[in-house]
Amino acid sequence: MTNNRLTTSWGAPVGDNQNSITAGNRGPTLLQDVHLLEKLAHFNRERVPERVVHAKGAGAHGFFEVTNDVTKYTKANLFSEVGKRTPLFIRFSTVAGENGSADTVRDPRGFAVKFYTEEGNYDIVGNNTPVFFIRDAIKFPDFIHTQKRDPQTHLKNPNAVWDFWSLSPESLHQVTILMSDRGIPATLRHMHGFGSHTFKWTNAEGDGVWIKYHFKTEQGVKNISPEVAAQIAGENPDYHTEDLFNAIEKGDFPAWKLYVQIMPLEDANTYKWDPFDVTKVWSQKDYPLIEVGRMVLDRNPENYFAEVEQATFSPGTLVPGIDVSPDKMLQGRLFAYHDAHRYRVGANHQALPINRAKNEVKNYQRDGQMRFDDNGGKSVYYEPNSLGGPTETPENKQAAYPVSGVAESVAYDHNDHYTQAGDLYRLMTEEQRAHLVSNIVAAMKPVERDDIKLRQIGHFYKADPEYGTRIAEGLGLAVPAEVK
């Protein structure tokens, strides 16, 4: 017979889980009821701080299978041979909303994948858009403040949103994507994913290339209108979470093809766009997509908190053969993401089952809150040592790239924030343009100050005169004379 006894957290059997220990029938409750005290104390601590961004999310397990030989570009074990399968975990999320917010809001979607490779974990922490609003991490806290709640009213503040965007013209490309039909995916299964940043692949000979990741959904891209999104938000705010779970549960496993764009290292100095500027894309005519493999999601989490909420991702979770680039936004994320997890989950978050590498972890990091393994046992706890402890492997150093210049606060050299946004507008059908303009006008109408509206209209006009004019007309304003 299976032992199914209820126990305390320290393993002792519980005799009564329905009635607390009291002094007589009417109490008061006695302090000696240690089971009651433990239950209440644990309940008070059941919630870890929610993520500052990407708080609302859904996740699933799956695998990645290599379908094309890319070993001439990278020595990463993950991509070492065609047919190789690697287990993975993915977390999808909205960006700005709280944990209880609706799934169908107009917002970028986080697209974070953890590959459990034989050489350690590798995270691709991206979005469902190929670009971002800003390109320097020093602006990130300010940007996110505009997406959160006003400190006085505790309401979302369109004045702050558009004031920041209008003063940050590099955001125009991402704003155009966000306000387009692509701004509200129909489901998490029906959207693409992107690494967004530029990364570096290095092969076994030490030769490198710059790359960008593209996950293309096999389900096809589907979006929903603002009206349908608002209706679903009211009727089922967890619609995307439920859809993903149910699809996997019934065996309709969602899948994505992974492609990369590859740029020779020397092209970074001559390409028409700064390849490390995350507000820009590389033309696929210049650097076509190369197939790498296929990602399939085939298993739901058994416990949401243990797997989805405690999952931690960082673009700094790297493996040999995959390195970073001088992208200023990426450079800031390398610190901020790991630091967020140390604060939110704890110093030993990497040791949790959902985050722990499948291969053996050997290092000299010890102690800290919630250390639940053997803490290194009695092995040597410092390095260098002469006691046979783990040592570095120089062949796995990150690849080098040249740097030069004076240490100072400098901006990117390229400041054309309008061409790519304008190109995107001109690629749209008339119906798509009408939706874009309608969405932007609706989002900007609550802005109280006309100077903010006019400044943003100027950006739209510089991207494409028709684009700016239609939004100005929708807001009952004229395009500023100085931008014509």
TrEMBL record:
Q: Which reaction does it catalyse?
A: 2 H2O2 = O2 + 2 H2O
Q: Where is this region: Disordered?
A: 1-25, 373-397
Main enzyme class: oxidoreductase
Question: Pfam families attached here?
Answer: Catalase (PF00199), Catalase-rel (PF06628)
The record's annotation in Gene3D superfamilies points to: Catalase core domain (2.40.180.10)
Keyword presence, Nucleotidyltransferase:
no
The Polar residues compositionally biased stretches are 1-23
Look up keyword Endoplasmic reticulum and say if it applies. Answer: no
* A GO molecular-function annotation: catalase activity
Spell out the InterPro entries in the cross-references: Catalase, Catalase_3, Catalase_AS, Catalase_clade1/3, Catalase_core, Catalase_haem_BS, Catalase_immune_responsive, Catalase_sf
Its keywords, alphabetically, are: Heme, Hydrogen peroxide, Iron, Metal-binding, Oxidoreductase, Peroxidase
- Per the UniProt record, which EC number(s) apply here? 1.11.1.6
Domain Catalase core span(s) in chain numbering:
7-391
Q: Which domain of life is it from?
A: Bacteria
PANTHER family given in the database record: CATALASE
Q: Which family does it belong to?
A: Belongs to the catalase family.
Q: Protein name, please?
A: Catalase
Report the source organism: Metabacillus halosaccharovorans
Q: Give the gene name.
A: katA
